[in-house]
Design goal:
single chain, about 180 residues, mainly alpha, Hypothetical Protein Ta1238, Chain: A, two-stranded antiparallel ribbon, 5 helices, 2 strands, about 60% helix
Length: about 180
């Protein structure tokens, strides 16, 4: 099977397993593309991660596939237990870190910088998912949006944790 099909040469596409075609410029493709970009960035984070982060990243990547499938129309859903898991991880990380008193400049260690960048992409993916659901005048009927909202917090916590473990000082912005 070839990696190209020529079916999208006129600016339309379909989601995996769907017969319906739609514009490559639609809210649906924007949402799916942003989630795909987010998952790909997490793949880069995995190349730098230790076992602790690796397990979390792979769990998130699988959950992002569920969200993409849901948005594309498949009978998949994110459940409250997935949100509870991500919240527990964030809570466990926060117990190890000094309290937040300010914003911090992104960066520090290379992995922390990737987590910061991935956090920003996660926020964009969340906005694109919201735009899609608003354009369809519908709700996701699962916990997808809540999960995406927690995900940026998780990525922020992971960036802070990586730097903290390496004793890299958090730098506050100068206003």
């Amino acid at each position: 099977m070839a990696l190209y099909t020529r079916k999208g040469d006129k600016g339309d596409t379909s989601a995996f397993g769907c017969k319906q075609r739609f514009s490559k410029n639609s809210a649906l493709t924007e949402s799916l593309g942003s989630l795909d970009e987010l998952n790909s960035l997490l793949g880069i984070c995995k190349t730098k991660a230790a076992d602790f982060e690796l397990k979390i990243i792979e769990q998130v990547q699988n959950n992002l596939f569920i969200i993409q499938a849901k948005i594309a129309g498949a009978d998949k859903k994110i459940t409250q237990d997935k949100i509870d898991e991500i919240e527990k991880i964030i809570d466990d990380i926060e117990k190890q870190l000094p309290p937040i008193k300010s914003f911090f400049l992104p960066g520090g260690n290379e992995l922390a910088a990737y987590f910061d960048y991935t956090r920003a992409v996660a926020r964009r993916a969340e906005r694109r998912a919201i735009a899609y659901f608003e354009s369809e005048k519908t709700q996701p009927n699962d916990e997808s949006l809540a999960y995406l909202n927690r995900l940026s917090s998780l990525l922020y916590a992971l960036a802070r944790l990586v730097n903290f473990k390496l004793k890299i000082k958090e730098i506050q912005p100068k206003y």
